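User: diguanylate cyclase. Structure?
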Amino acid sequence: MLPAYDNHAELDALHLLTQLVQTIEVGLVVLDTDLNIAHWNSFMENHSGLRSSDVRNQSLFACFPDLPKQWLTSKLNTAFLLNNRAFTTWEQRPYIFKFPNSRPVTGQSPFMYQNLTIQPLSNRNGQVKHVALLIYDVTVEANHRQALSKMSKVDTLTGLANRRSWQEHLDREMERCRRYKQSATLMVLDIDHFKSINDTLGHSAGDEVLAQVGEQLKALIRKSDIAARYGGEEFTLLLPETKLEPATLLAERIRSSISKLEVETESGLAKFTVSIGLASYTGKVKNQSHWFQCADQALYQAKEQGRNRCVSYQF
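Assistant: Predicted structure:
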């Protein structure tokens, strides 16, 4: 028998370890070989609403029928059989347990993003009789990375796609049109006399005008359409599965609605018009650059003809 001092020391160490396991800000679930719950810490209690006494010795999948059973069982069986640790990240699977977001003020998602570690637990004989699931709340990191990813594809002033993102959409749409012989129309829009707005009302007023044009475009196009700020005061729209006639009708609605806009700025009222060039995809379109050049040439013709009008490129 160990001396009393050693027994006390071991009990103290066990007590400290139990406190740590219970209070650590990481979910800890220990499963036996039948996938019944042997341990359920405070993190899991707080986020699931189920106490340890409610789930102990119960089947994990009976307690949580929404878990990805086939996928998770496969990983757990591998841990038991091969004594291998496994990892998954929120990018591979956003969550394991569908817990609500614990940071609703700063979080952008209604649920908690999670990373998962599956850790085999060996007994004194080296046999894996239990497996631990470690669930990490990575909601803040996930939201931050998603925000950065979105920012890299969005024009911050208008909220539309930026030039890089739009180019990616154009490449895909060009390939789709070629492969499936489907229609699409490209539209290029430019604010008439935009320089005079900056010169008379200031650049902040010009920014307000650009933002309002962006809002107007978002309100008028379909969800399947892609609107982007191409650069400066120039915008582009990509209309999948749209022939020239309906695209021209949309272009006229856009032109008319923007001509009626009155943007209040700190320096005064801004009223303006836009010119629009259109080019529908045909077999004569050589590549993405050629398609854009055709729409841009139609825009140039609209400017030459007096602005505040829509012109279609004729192949």
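DSSP finds eleven helices and twelve strands in the chain. The first strand starts at residue 27 and ends at 32.
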